[in-house]
């Protein structure tokens, strides 16, 4: 992990290339990052703490009960079977060789628990419908959380028990962390993201209070079903299992409600300033399909197929019989995965790993309002997070920095500069060095924000790893093979700073080149 900066080749071609003109088509996909020179990823290997590449079939009583329940509810024969994966709980493995592109999972609508389906089955249905009719629908993830809490309280007497009893008791997501553990993230943008996620869960809990009070008054709520702890664990479950089906329903799901604050599998992180609009689709729980574990380099997603009238997964590569099949939970960094799912893959296995860098319009900029309005027209907030990877940054980073540092004389000037930067991808030469310096300063400030030194964190991680190897480690996952939460946090924070250091190094090269060019 330490080699990245030391082995960096200082050449202009290794730079982030934020200045290079881009085509309109490339500009259209402006949320994407450049990726070059990333290490070959280790695929499945990172998953198997035991070093085994053949997961064990989950032939236990609970697995059998789930299989019978799924069959009874119309699950057709699948090419996947539940397996036990050391360090990752359960997973799904191919039961026969699978060709690339093959549809290897089909989950019919009866088994897709959308918010609308949850509302239909909920004991709170009359109240949820009344709230909807009054134009105050509960967010999607709150409806699903209420359903999960109700089904959990029903226990073995409920319809959903064979599914629920297989869900892990602890997900490892940040809603289950202690305050002290959340504090470990201080200095990183992840700290802000963690607090946002926890605040969203608290806000959702508060928001449902009037409905729960009405439910109690009308005798609709089973005793104890909707207490704080049950809802908190339902939110944690959703954070780590909810899947956004981009092709099912509209932005508001199959009912008229919005999609809430959850950020489960496949949904985008909401921690980037005002960021992009919530992606279209419906969030849903997918029994059986939600046993699929995340592969950082996977490109296949679960999605609704109208043609198949089912949620379908297509293989992004071929699989041997017995091999664990993975999906992508989204292009997430280790830190983002840790917050939502309780695990962080080793950075070398995760091509999406990196750090978020915040750039902001200066508070004392006399033309801040003009710039903010101009940025807003291109989808940017006055303060914005940009994802950095080891050798990659979104091209808008420099353009945004250009807006931050430019001197503009009028609102129209701010507009035309933004137009030039973001629409025409035309970066005024004279702005380049100042924008570069601004990004370098932002990276340096981000480095300074971590309360402990990189060396101290590296030493602690190494000591913990040695302890674990010697048998003294305390795994926080479902198996002792998983690294502890502290180890994963350290790994994430160390990598973030390595990416920042590398970015600074590359940008300083670029700055030298730009200044040299300006002199000639
Ligand atoms: C949608 S569930 C997947 C099924 C889960 N393994 C189970 O046993 O129910 C997501 C959870 O699986 C685990 N997980 C998924 N991918 C993983 C990976 N690559 N490494 C370690 N754990 C993983 C994490 O605990 C995560 O919160």
Automatic annotation (TrEMBL):
Signal peptide as annotated in the record: none
Every SET domain range: 76-330
UniProt cross-references to SUPFAM superfamilies, sorted A to Z: RuBisCo LSMT C-terminal, substrate-binding domain (SSF81822), SET domain (SSF82199)
Protein's organism: Chlorella sorokiniana
Pfam families, per database record: Rubis-subs-bind, SET
Methyltransferase listed as a keyword: yes
Keywords from the UniProt entry: Methyltransferase, S-adenosyl-L-methionine, Transferase
InterPro entries assigned: Rubisco_LSMT_subst-bd, Rubisco_LSMT_subst-bd_sf, SET_dom, SET_dom_sf, SETD3_SETD6_MTase
Protein name: Ribulose-1,5 bisphosphate carboxylase oxygenase large subunit N-chloroplastic
Annotated GO biological process: methylation
């Amino acid at each position: 992990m330490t080699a990245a900066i030391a082995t960096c080749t200082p050449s202009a071609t290794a730079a982030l290339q934020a200045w290079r003109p881009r085509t309109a088509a490339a500009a259209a996909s402006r949320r994407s990052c450049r990726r070059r020179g990333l290490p070959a990823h280790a695929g499945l290997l990172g998953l198997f703490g035991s070093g085994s590449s053949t997961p064990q079939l989950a032939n236990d009583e609970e697995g059998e009960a789930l299989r019978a329940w799924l069959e009874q509810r119309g699950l057709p024969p699948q090419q996947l079977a539940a397996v036990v994966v050391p360090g990752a709980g359960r997973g799904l493995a191919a039961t026969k060789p699978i060709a690339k592109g093959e549809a290897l999972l089909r989950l019919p609508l009866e088994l897709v628990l959308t918010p609308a389906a949850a509302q239909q089955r909920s004991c709170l249905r009359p109240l949820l419908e009344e709230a909807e009719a009054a134009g105050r629908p509960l967010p999607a993830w709150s409806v699903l959380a209420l359903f999960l809490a109700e089904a959990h309280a029903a226990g073995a007497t409920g319809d959903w028990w064979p599914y629920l009893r297989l869900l892990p008791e602890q997900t490892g997501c940040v809603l289950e962390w202690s305050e002290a553990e959340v504090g470990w993230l201080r200095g990183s943008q992840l700290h802000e993201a963690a607090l946002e996620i926890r605040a969203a869960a608290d806000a959702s809990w508060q928001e449902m209070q009037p409905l729960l009070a009405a439910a109690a008054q009308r005798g609709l709520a089973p005793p104890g079903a909707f207490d704080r702890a049950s809802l908190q664990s339902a939110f944690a479950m959703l954070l780590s299992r909810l899947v956004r089906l981009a092709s099912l329903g509209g932005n508001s799901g199959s009912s008229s409600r919005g999609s809430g604050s959850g950020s489960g599998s496949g949904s985008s992180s909401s921690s980037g300033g005002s960021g992009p609009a919530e992606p279209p689709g419906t969030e849903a729980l997918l029994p059986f399909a939600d046993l699929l574990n995340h592969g950082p380099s996977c490109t296949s997603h679960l999605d609704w197929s109208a043609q198949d009238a089912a949620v379908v997964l297509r293989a992004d590569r071929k699989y041997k019989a017995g091999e664990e099949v993975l999906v992508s939970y989204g292009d997430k960094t280790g830190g983002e995965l840790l917050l939502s799912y309780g695990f962080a893959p080793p950075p070398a296995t995760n091509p999406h790993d990196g750090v978020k860098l915040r750039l902001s319009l200066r508070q004392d900029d006399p033309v801040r309002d003009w710039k903010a309005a101009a940025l807003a027209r291109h989808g940017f907030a006055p303060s914005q997070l940009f994802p950095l990877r080891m050798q990659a940054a979104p091209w808008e980073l420099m353009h945004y920095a250009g807006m931050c540092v430019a001197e503009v004389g009028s609102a129209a000037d701010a507009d035309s500069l933004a137009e030039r930067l973001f629409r025409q991808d035309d970066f005024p030469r004279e702005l380049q060095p100042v924008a570069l310096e601004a990004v370098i300063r932002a990276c340096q400030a981000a480095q300074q924000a971590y309360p402990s030194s990189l060396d101290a964190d590296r030493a602690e991680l190494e000591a913990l790893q040695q302890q674990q190897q010697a048998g003294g480690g305390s795994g926080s996952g479902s198996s002792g093979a998983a690294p502890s939460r502290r180890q994963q946090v350290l790994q994430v924070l160390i990598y973030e700073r390595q990416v920042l250091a590398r970015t600074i190094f590359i940008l300083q090269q670029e700055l030298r080149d730009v200044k040299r060019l300006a002199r000639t």
